[in-house]
Amino acid sequence: MSSSPARRRAAATAAAVCALAVALAGCGGTTKKDNDNGGAAKSDAKADPGAPLKKGLKLAFLPKQINNPYEKLIDEAGITAAGEFGGKGKEVGPSDASASSQVSYINTLVQQRQDAILIAANDPNAVCGPLKQAMKKDIKVVAYDSDTAPACRQLFINQASSEEIGRSQVQHLARQLGYKGQIAILSATQNATNQNTWIRFMKDELSKPAYKNMKLVKTVYGDDDDQKSFQETQGLLKAYPELKGIIAPTTVGIAAAARYISGSSYEGKVVLNGLGTPNQMRKYVKDGTVEQFALWDPKKLGYLGSYAAAALASGQITGAEGEKFKAGKLGEYTVGKNGEVILGPPTVFEKSNIDKYHF
Amino acid sequence: MKLRWDTAVGVLLVAVFLTGLGTTDGFAGRDNLAFAFNDIAEVALMALPMTLLVVAGQVDLSVASMLGLSSALTGQLWDAGWAFETIVPIVLLVGVVGGLLNGWLVTRVGLPSLAVTIGTLALYRGLASVVLGSNAITDFPETYAKWAVDTTTVPGTFLTYPVALFIVLAAIAAVVLHATGVGRSLFAIGAQEDAAYFAGIRVKRVKLLLFVVSGLISAFAGVVFTLRYGSARADNGQGFEMLVIASVLLGGVDFDGGKGTLFGAVAGVLLIGVLKNLLTLNDVANEVQVIVTGLLLVASVLTPRLITTVSAWRHRRAAASTS
């Protein structure tokens, strides 16, 4: 076989590519240090707090994924809210939650001349370019549930402040334990930004004198995987026989931990608290494995998002810090730093109220 | 009178396009057209070598994984402070090496390309995850990003630069496939590999070259994708291999090899892109879009067979009635 010409050609190609690389590198070139993108979205527009909400506003909700039940709940509440102020809401979105899948939807919403786009971003940056385009065409952009880069939206509707989530978790568990005993944390992944922020506030709260008889012995990671969270709980309880309480600030983690504890000898001896959804946890609350847990109410989140978008589109606010707007029956809200609007403290679910929630 | 499937797809594309112009607000806008075509730029680019591969009876399922690996590598090197001008040739070289591995396993070890590239599909995606993990690297230089986004168009047109480049490459691919000896040898290999070999075609060399080009273009598509979205991730372009192959088959290129036109493949890619844009603009749910694309694909594979079967049956009947 005459393989030598092929080989020669391949070698020549490789050499050419390398030479090109060296030549280009030699010219200096653009590196990350030369780059500076950032800053929150700014608007030259003036806010007119007295302006009435416009009628017939078109709002579009763009969830991470169209069949995500949690986000569907948010979006439906938002669409209902739009009806309250004479607007029209709709939900569109991709069937997969990949980084780029939302982009074509943003573009088409711009072409359809929606008044506002509400987005739960799959990737804070992949959606940035088209959202900036939308804002340039005077379409208001509100992120909810999962933020975009701050420069790419006017508002971010945050479920609850990270500080409040972190501290309240410790406060709730401490009350259940009588401020005594060893505790552990079962988190999601080791590099989950929101989880780690919460954990930082938990540790800070624990350093206060009121908690001097409580000790955080370990933080384990279940990677938001049911199986792994289950095993981590098992390991934790084996390794620390004196363990009195677990905080699982992840819906996957808390459900897996509850499943393990409910069938084991630890039932009734270890207190489990954290963040979970009522549907996943109902069983364990009813059988007494878990006394209480918390999460924000997604319906309120959608409701607030809808009113915030309408306030933006009506010119009541521009997204600057300190501006105030009314969110229907939820009352008045103030725009915080970086365009953040915080829904409020998380809702605590227990036997007495869990049947009112279905998500 | 025999309507060829690729012509039919071309006609369908024009029909869908005209429907959009006539019925849908915003479709005819320059911004939307620029976006609609740019949105499928990477798929379109990868469809070119794929067309040549399928004509030669081969397939490369690893293209989207190579896109992901290239994106991850671009991101990681950029994050490490390398110059973008250095990163691109390195990434392209990785594409060439990936293509060589595919080609080598097919031609030297003698494995079927379907099996080989199912393996490298996993391998390259795995490597992408090793390179970048679940991180996303952002903040790519505006100087380069602007060439990939749909807001920068070739002056006076709605064509973005990735699309303009695609047109040039498609023209080259069309000439190679339909007007050169290499092109004829691809058809020959696809139709009857042994016969092609005995006719003096250097089958292995041609196949190796095709896989290398496929790897190279996929790596390049990875850079375009990364700049276009401004986000380098290991999972970028996940599932695109299906879209690429579906477009090529939709364009009437025979999966068994030996038959097809580049015009058809290009019409197939554009049809999928324009249709997706038009359906999204009209708020057609994603599930329905997937079904429409699926039906089109089934039709594209089925129709030519049906035509052949029906005409064969007619011939037989005509022959029977005259005898």
Automatic annotation (TrEMBL), chain A:
* Protein keywords: Signal
Q: Which residues form the Periplasmic binding protein domain?
A: 60-316
Highest taxon, organism lineage: Bacteria
Name the major location: other
Q: Where in the cell is it found?
A: Cell envelope
* InterPro entries per UniProt: Bact_Solute-Bind_Prot2, Peripla_BP_I, RhaS, SBP_2_dom
Q: What is this protein called?
A: Rhamnose transport system substrate-binding protein
Taxonomic source organism: Streptomyces rapamycinicus
Source taxonomy lineage?
Bacteria, Bacillati, Actinomycetota, Actinomycetes, Kitasatosporales
From TrEMBL, chain B:
According to the lineage, what is the superkingdom? Bacteria
Where in the cell does this protein reside?
A: Cell membrane
Keywords, alphabetical: Cell inner membrane, Cell membrane, Membrane, Transmembrane, Transmembrane helix, Transport
Pfam families under this entry? BPD_transp_2
Q: According to its record, what are the GO cellular component terms?
A: plasma membrane
CDD domains linked: TM_PBP1_transp_AraH_like
**Residue ranges crossing the lipid bilayer per the database entry:** 82-105, 163-187, 208-227, 262-282, 288-307
Membrane topology, as annotated: Multi-pass membrane protein
Query: Which is an annotated GO molecular function term of this record?
Result: transmembrane transporter activity
Q: Which InterPro entries match?
A: ABC_transp_permease
Q: What is this protein called?
A: Autoinducer 2 import system permease protein LsrD
